[in-house]
């Protein structure tokens, strides 16, 4: 027998999903993350889930992993000391950056500009110059290169990034500098902009290359450490890492290009949500992944996540293809506090994390969190993660009482409800960023809620957004790991052109796309995939001539064979531009960057099919319960999700429990059990209707 493992490491929990490739049977396990060394928690989870499935570790053939190692290195500022090599005259490219200050009017007065990942003292210039079309204007002075690299060696740099002006058009100078660096700086990893991001715009190309060098050491060590630990445990499995765009790459490729992993974790959740929504019969959805530290949201149309060309982590924005995920510091571990100056209740972005965790975890945490508020209101029961984590109800009440006293409330229940209202509004704000602010009405979408805390808040978010039904997938707490285990290998190749349509022909664009396709295929074929199993998609970054930004447009390569490709692309761009900005320009269209993305086959995983059981859920009833909702205690029922059958309708107020998550159904709403295992929550008057 062969098994596939999906692994997702979050700020609080590490989720493991084991899939039998022959039967589709799954086993899941959730354990606390180990921030000091994520591989410890990963290996513990793998050992436990294999024990639960009663199989030896040697049966595992693939480990598919979404990781936050690169993300944490950026957020915690624990990356390598990076040296930067630039063209003479461009030493301050990172300091000049872009003239953008976040916040409102006069935000620059209080905005502390973040320090560049490569210090100015660790940046050197070399004599060379290339034109925008790749013509060598000034040859590379190799003696000067050696002199500058020796300066960096004295500085004690730990990684080297090379970003020369216009190297996207001609990368030979960067390649030669890398060869010299291997002699002058042996053992120092090198990142070249002509490899990491061969695209227009020197600042974006440089900051992306520097970020790649900054996290490369940590990612390489982690991947190597995990591979060694898997081998020592008797797991002879191929390790693949999830990229920010939702595709997989081998561990070796991931270690060489870690900047593509910055949104690795959230991308797995979106992939899993698409799978769950498709099983339930929905193609347009908002995804809502609430964990212990943060909440990630995204928008999906026609089962295809929206893809962005930028990735933002903290203060850093790099040019890397990723699922368009927005993150807000609102999770189960988000800490509630009342600043003395304003006396107004705030929730997050500070988090109790996995250690010490919320007060109710009884691990030394004292501050009130969102989890503690859910415990006080009766939404969370005293056991989590199948009994691995017990909750201290009294400690939760004591912590929340500090908030009640700070804002002058007599009862802790009112303070707990206030905490939840605020965190729900914070999440609603993030959902508006991917929907209404992008021209989409959330009422036209279903809302897929997952993560350990997502199903607890899902019903309330459905009320705020008007997105129905709210879909709670099977195993929502480990859905990110499910996404990791059910996605495919993927690679991408890009080339910058910057040519107006009058300078192009259909045949020229076709030839460029086919060349990019061949390049992108190489790594997948090297990973052992069959040529006939690969699929290709193409896209272009376009703009009106004179504009300073581009819009990504999907291309149909067959239209370029028929001679109508540029006309078709022009129409697509105008349609998207008008949707986004409500106007068109008469300027000529300009083709900036072409991309080809090659994907391997998606693994076949058998879907859950539940036994039909009518509308009555009473066989799954565990006990009666009491919840505090809208200022009052109300009687409720606790159900075991594992005992629910297809067609069962759970009327709120109710709590539905399972190993990895807890679902809250509010009064006036009902959850219908879909034959493929999802819970579909709607307002009671709509609970019997089906949205196709």
TrEMBL record:
Chain ranges of the Hydantoinase A/oxoprolinase domain: 205-491
PANTHER family, per the entry: 5-OXOPROLINASE RELATED, HYPOTHETICAL 5-OXOPROLINASE (EUROFUNG)-RELATED
GO terms under biological process: glutathione metabolic process
Residue span, Acetophenone carboxylase-like C-terminal domain: 510-672
GO cellular component, one term: cytosol
Pfam families in UniProt: Hydant_A_C, Hydant_A_N, Hydantoinase_A
Gene Ontology terms for molecular function: 5-oxoprolinase (ATP-hydrolyzing) activity
Species per Swiss-Prot/TrEMBL record: Arthrobacter alpinus
Protein name: 5-oxoprolinase
Domain Hydantoinase/oxoprolinase N-terminal: 4-184
Signal peptide: none
């Amino acid at each position: 027998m062969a098994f596939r493992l999906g692994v997702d490491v979050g700020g609080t929990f590490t989720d493991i999903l084991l899939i039998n490739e022959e039967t589709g049977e799954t086993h899941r396990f959730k354990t606390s993350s180990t921030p000091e060394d994520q591989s410890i928690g990963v290996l513990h989870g793998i050992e436990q889930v294999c024990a639960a499935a009663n199989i030896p570790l040697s049966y595992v053939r693939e480990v598919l992993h979404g990781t936050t190692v690169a993300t944490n290195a950026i957020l915690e500022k624990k990356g390598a000391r990076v040296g930067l090599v630039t063209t003479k005259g461009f030493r301050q490219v990172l300091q000049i950056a872009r003239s953008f200050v976040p916040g409102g009017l006069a935000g620059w007065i209080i905005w502390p500009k973040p320090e560049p990942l490569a210090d100015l003292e660790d940046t050197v210039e070399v004599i060379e110059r290339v034109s925008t079309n790749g013509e060598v204007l000034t040859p590379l002075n190799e003696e000067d290169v050696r002199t500058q690299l020796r300066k960096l060696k004295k500085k004690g740099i730990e990684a080297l990034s090379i970003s020369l002006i216009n190297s996207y058009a001609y990368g030979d100078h960067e390649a030669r500098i890398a060869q010299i660096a291997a002699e002058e700086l042996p053992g120092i990893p090198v990142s070249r902009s002509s490899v990491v991001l061969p695209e227009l715009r020197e600042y974006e190309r440089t900051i992306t290359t520097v970020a790649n060098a900054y996290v490369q050491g940590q990612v390489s060590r982690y991947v190597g450490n995990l591979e060694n630990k898997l081998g020592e445990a008797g797991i002879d499995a191929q390790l693949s890492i999830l990229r920010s765009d939702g595709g997989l790459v081998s561990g070796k490729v991931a270690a060489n290009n870690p900047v593509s992993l910055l949104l690795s974790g959230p991308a797995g959740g979106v992939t899993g949500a698409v799978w769950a929504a498709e099983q339930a019969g929905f193609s347009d959805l908002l995804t809502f992944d609430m964990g212990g530290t943060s909440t990630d949201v995204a928008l999906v149309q026609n089962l295809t996540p929206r893809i962005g060309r930028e990735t933002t982590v903290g203060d850093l924005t790099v040019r890397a293809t990723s699922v368009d995920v927005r993150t807000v510091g609102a999770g189960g571990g988000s800490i509630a506090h009342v600043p003395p100056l304003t006396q107004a209740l705030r929730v997050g972005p500070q988090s109790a994390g996995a250690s010490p965790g919320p007060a109710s975890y009884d691990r030394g945490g004292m501050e009130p969190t969102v989890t503690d508020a859910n415990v006080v209101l009766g939404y969370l029961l005293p056991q989590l993660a199948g009994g691995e984590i017990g909750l201290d109800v009294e400690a939760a009440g004591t912590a929340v009482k500090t908030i009640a006293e700070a804002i002058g409330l007599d009862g802790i229940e009112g303070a707990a409800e206030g905490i939840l209202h605020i965190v729900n509004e914070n999440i609603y704000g993030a959902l508006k960023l991917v929907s209404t602010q992008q021209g989409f009405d959330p009422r036209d979408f279903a809302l897929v809620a997952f993560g350990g805390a997502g199903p607890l808040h899902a019903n309330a978010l459905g009320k705020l957004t008007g997105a129905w039904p709210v879909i709670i997938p099977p195993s929502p707490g480990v859905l990110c790991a499910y996404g990791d285990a059910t996605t495919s290998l993927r690679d991408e190749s890009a080339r910058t052109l910057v040519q107006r349509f009058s300078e192009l022909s259909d045949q020229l664009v076709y030839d460029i796309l086919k060349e990019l396709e061949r390049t992108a295929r190489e790594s997948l074929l090297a990973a052992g995939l069959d040529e006939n199993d690969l699929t290709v998609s193409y896209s272009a970054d376009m703009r009106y001539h004179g504009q300073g930004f581009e819009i990504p447009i999907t291309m149909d390569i067959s239209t370029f064979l028929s001679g109508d490709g540029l006309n078709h692309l022009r129409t697509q761009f105008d349609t998207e531009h008008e949707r986004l900005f409500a106007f068109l320009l008469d300027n000529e269209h300009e083709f900036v960057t072409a991309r080809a993305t090659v994907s391997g086959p998606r693994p076949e995983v058998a879907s859950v099919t539940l036994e039909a059981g009518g509308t009555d859920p009473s066989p799954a009833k565990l006990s009666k319960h009491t919840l505090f909702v809208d200022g009052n205690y109300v009687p409720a029922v606790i159900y075991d999700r594992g005992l629910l059958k297809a067609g069962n309708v759970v009327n709120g107020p109710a709590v539905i429990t399972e190993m990895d998550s807890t679902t809250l159904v509010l009064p006036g709403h009902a959850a219908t059990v879909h034959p493929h295992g999802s819970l579909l929550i709607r307002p009671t008057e709509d609970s019997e209707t089906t949205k196709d």
